[in-house]
Structures are given as structure tokens and as C-alpha cells.
User: Fold this.
Amino acid sequence: MSSARKIEANRANARASTGPRTAKGKARAAQNARRHGLNLPVVSDPVLSEWSKALARKIAGVSGAETYQLACGVAEAEIDVIRIRHVRQDLFDRNISNVACLHKLAVIISDLTKQLVALDRYERRALSRRKFAIRAFDAARQQSGMR
Amino acid sequence: MSHMPGPPQTFLFGPAPILRGEDSEAYGVLFARISMDVKATDIIEEIWIKDVADLTWEILRYRRIKENWLATLKSDALEKELEHILDKKEEEIAWSRLSESECAELDTEVHDNPPVSLPSEKKLVKKWASGDLNAKKRINKLLSWDNETLDTVEARAFVDELANIEGLQRLIATLEARRDAALREIDRHRAVFAQLLRTKLQDIEMEGEFEPVETKAIAHKSP
Assistant:
């Protein structure tokens, strides 16, 4: 059992430690609870945001501002789909050294089921968002074409 | 020769779903085949084509895994069962259950193939898996001594792994449903595209902007 002096010293040390002090340390600690970041919107990440804008420009083509806004919705949902698939592939890459051993792969997949199901939920939502965004984009294009 | 489209730019569509050890060229060929058949009319269709190619790649992968897994399960279960039977045989537990003629038959079998020289279960199962009729006959005989058949051994193995098999099957079904959904969306999108095209053509005809070019008779001068 620890002595009273030891306990007191531990408590004093713990009080002195109040987390990271440097900007780098704080930035790192801010990511402690982050697992995959799939809940964060695409626009919150500068790289993804640029990617999304480039894709939106390609989707919208030469159409007007309203259609471009709808194309942004399609692009953001598509980037989400890609992000989720990327995380899933990372998960496989971390756990599988080679796919040649198929029965081992089956066991690994069954071990990863919980995480795969969670990712699948994200993917289902992103795909649904993308589907409706495309439908809205198509409807707008159809309307502007009919005007 | 027609131009085979390669996999899409990673920049716009994300990486191909290739795992370590998988053949990236085979994915490229699959993508090219789908892409050539569907012929995307715009970037949205390109997104779906990438989806369809990726999903097909994954479906094929999981189907391969499932087939291989089921075969392995069957072999493993059979191997275990044979090991068990041969152990029993060595201990001569089976003797008490056998009729006189069966005793004689087993005696001959053991005499011809004493336990020490019996092919290991692994070898026997390997031969059976490759379709060796003698191995099959021998396995059936060994199994029947323990009141078992290939079917019961297989069924037991599947029941033990049912949850995992079901999980894999569900995964395949989900991917297939997603691929069907992508194909349906391409159909719907193309209907919109066709409608748009029809309206544009009607507008052009109504506006009369493009007059048909009248062909004038060319007077041929005689030389």
C-alpha cells in the first residue's frame, strides 16, 4: 500500500499537470477523441473543400449559379462516399497483409464486422444524400432546359 | 482499335478499391469493360460507373472469399472428424460396436493399413478435395464406422460458423443491392437527359434558327 507521503506527492504532481501547453500539444490533444472524422462536414477541411469545389465545377459545367449550388451538394456527398470507402480500405490494409490467403481474410472480415457495419451505416447515409442531391440537380437542369 | 478507358482520375473519384496483394491491372480491365459498355454521357454517370466497377470488384472478392471459406470449413471439419475416428480406432473403441463381419472388414482394413501407416487425415482430405474416388470411398467407410456421413460433418461445420457465413452473405447482398441502385439511377438520369435533349430539339425546330440548306442544281458546263 502507498504511504500517505507518496499519495500526497502523487496528488500534487497530478494537480501540476493540466494538459498540453504548447500549441502543437494542444492541437494534438484536440484530436484525442477523433476516430475517423467521418462526422465532420467536407467544408470543414480545406483540402476536401477544394476537392469538392473542383468536382462541383466539373459537375455543373457552364450552367448558372443555382445549378452550381446543387452541384456542390452532389460533390460534397460524393467526397463523403469516397472518404468512407477510404477509411474502410485503410482498415483492411491495417489488418490484412495479403489477400492471397482467402480463408484468413474471411476470419479477419468476421473480426472486423462491428467496424464494417458502422462504416456501412455512414456509407448508406452518404449514398442516400448523393442520390437525392443528384435528383435535385437533374430536376433543376431539366427545369432550366424547359424554360 | 477502340480506346479502352482506364480507371478514373484518383483526384476526382478517389482510389480504386484494391487491397494489398490484389491485381490492379485486373481492376483496370474490369473498369474498362464496364465503362465501354455503359458509355458515360456526363461526369455524374462517370461517378456511377466508378461505383458499379468498385462494387463489382468487391462483390467478386467476397464471393471468392465465401467459396474458399466454405471449402476450407468442409475440409477442416472432415479432417477433425477423421482424426477423431482414427484416434477411436486406435483405442479400439469401435470394436465393441461392430458386427462380426464388420469386425473382420475393419480388421482387414487395419491389417492392410495399420494406424501408423494410415495416410494422415490431411493427405486423405487433400486427395478427397481433388476428387480422388478412392479417397472418397475410404473416407465414407471411415465416417460410417462412427455413424457419420459427409453431409452431417459438413452441416455441423456450417452450423458452427453460421453467423460468420451469414455476415459475409449479408455483405455481398448489400453490395449487390447498391450496385442495382446505381444502375437504376443511371436509367433515371438518362431518362432526364433524353427528355432534356428532346426539349432542346423542339426549341431548335420552333425557333427555326437553323434553316435547312437548299441544294441548288449545279449546272454542268460542257467542256
